[in-house]
Amino acid sequence: MTLSETRESGGPPEAIPDTEASGRRPRRPLSPTGARYVLLIVTLVLAGAFAGQVVHGMVLGPSWADGAQRCWEEGRRLFPGSAQTQAEYWIRCSAPLQRRQAAVSLTGSAAVLLLGVAGLWILPRRLLRGAGPLKAAPAGWQERAARVANEMGVRRPPRVMWGGGHVRQAFVVGSGRRCLIVLPREIRLLPEEEAEAILRHEIGHVAAGDVTLVWFTRGVWWALPPVLLTAPLVAAVQGWRSRDSTVGRMLAKAFWAEYGVRTLVLVVIAALVAQMIMRSREHEADLAAARGQSVAPWESLFRRSAQAERTWLGTVRANHPTHPRRIAVLRDPRLQLRPTVVDTLVVGLLAAVLLDSVHGLAGLLLTGTSWSAAPVSALTAGLLLAVGWGVAVWHHTRVREDGTATPSRRLHLALGVSTAAGLLVRLQGTGTAPEGTVLGWPLLIVLPVAVVGAAALTTAFADLWSRRRGADRIGQRDRLTVVAVGTLLFGGALWLAMDFSVFLTVFRTDRVLNAALLDGPHSPSGAYKAVALAAIAVPALWAAARDTHRGAFRLAALTAVAAVAASVVTRLAYRPASAAGDWTGMWRLDVLTALCAGTVCAGVLVALRGSGGLGHALYAAPVATVLTSTALWAARFGDWRNPFEALVTVLLESSLAGLAVVLCASAVPAGLLPAWAAGRRAADIAAPALAVTVAAALVVALRHYGDALVLR
User: What's the predicted TM-score (pTM) here?
Assistant: First the structure.
């Protein structure tokens, strides 16, 4: 905080109460600043892997090509009559080459991180040398710092030092086992309350735990450029040493234009994230300093001299928030928790880039194994979305007052648009741009739609989790639950989109329908998708059961029971003559019947409550599907050879996997609806009636048109 940071502000001074609603304790992880540090680290890792891959192609590319060609020729010689066996041999033979390529890429990631960590040690010492000569402040200042540190829960009070005569800005650095606060000498001319406000702000940084890590942000420009410039430097050296080329010819290739564009994207992302970190850490230090205090000293300090008016470029480049923004956050700390469009665009873009890069690297590392790269990349990108965006949504939802709006639906669309843009970056596909996205051009449409649906479900779960009893006291379990559920929602949606894009290319007719069936009830990975949906439904059910307002929970329960009863009765009433000779068709229609029950349950809840019904659909729809599957299985218990295995691996697995696709797709339009409250008595009557009518109609429709939905 500088001495010149002042502002004219009207209105009576207010105190920041020391409560959960007014702001979080700065030490708590997963704050806006903490989540943005994760984004910055991911950006640096991606940049290093990008540069490492290009360097591998220039230095080790010829040996990789010779080795791959040798493996292919050996496969043709050993297995001349089987193209499939030849391909399998090539995969096994070339696996060491693929892993070497991944190792070189990850070496680039390690290099950029090591340079960033080096900045943690070099940059603060450089700043201290420039601020000298330093002189210990009088004992009164040390005692004041110890008192404030004790109020903020800082175990080791920082030492207070006077800076040199040219120091105009207070700052704090870590030095050994204790932090140092360096104050400008002019602070002694300020009123006591204003001087303590500056001291409290600097100790607020210590309480937030970002005194050391902030240098990682400032060291980005020491770490990122050297790594990104390594590839062109290697190309220049190769051109200089080559007899058939020159430096100019090597760097004039079209490849370097692609490299430059991708480098620019990474630099812009890093700059945006670093700026967001610097601004949010100032807000968090302000809130920590003003907790339990009046904001009057800050307003007086800002009023002492006006802040210089910023141009639009200065506003974009500034690392500190404006004075009006800082006062606004001090008066209403919830503003700091609200996810913004810029946050959303950056997280979505970075998640798609991470998805593509991890898919490429995992494909190299897993070559020759039975593992697939799709779930690894989907869950990694899903974790980033859950931490970078989902946690912010939960924080904002948790502290908003009754009657305030949930995060804007525009953010869901912004997240989808930014993921589509991120798919086009293709760090691992540099030089192969005409091939489209990682799994082809259909993914450019399918994946953003899936992300929008997952964003709507994440917002709905955050709202559900924030309204349970005891939500005002958050602990480690709450954080882990929110991150885990967000990862499953986003990661599952990404995995569904990737599989769907692949299946679209398998069929020539009815592509969308057959791809949806293979992605859902007939999925080869249906067990994982079913377990993920069940893992989401359990905490959602627990949160809804602990809600102080039981009307929505009652409505969801009535809807689920009605959908199950109508589906089971209608299905069992239909016993076609061909049942004995078409057992496969029978159990697959049972799976679709259970899927109908869950779909109807979710649809009725959304129809009666708008987007407010999505959170309850997360548990009511799976419960309806499970109950319907179990009832149909019990009715034919004696017909199964291994009845309990059939219940788990046939009925429940297939029906829940199909419901995962339905919920993700239906959440896209449902999440854009406003939330409204249904009349209690009218809803209790309308929900069962509507569920019974629609469920019975859908099951009857399966009797006549179900063959089109049964893959044989």
Answer: 0.88
